[in-house]
Amino acid sequence: SGAPAMFTKDDGTKEPSAFSYGKTNYNWQCNLDNYYAMLLQTNNKGIITINYGFARYGTGTNPVADAAHLAADWVRYDKGRTQLWEIGNENYGNWEWGYRIDVTANKDSQPEFLTGELYAQHFKVFVDSMQKAAAEIGNKIYIGAVTAEAPSPESWQTNTRKTWNAGMMPGINNKADFFVVHNYFTPYNTNANADVILSSALSVPQIMMQYVTQTLQSYGTAIKPIAMDEWNMTSNTQKQQVSNTSGVFAVLIMGEALKNKYGMSARWDLLNGWGNGDDHGLFSNGDEPGTVAKWSPRPSFYYLYYLQKMLGDRLVNSTVSGSNAVKAYASTYSSGQVNVTLLNITSTAQTVEVKMKNFYSGSRFYWYSLEGGNDNGEFSRKVLVNGNGPAGDAGGPVTYNTLKARSAVTTGGIKVTIPPLGAVMIAVDKK
Question: What domains are there in the chain, each with its CATH number?
Answer without folding.
Answer: 6-312 (3.20.20.80), 315-430 (2.60.40.1180)
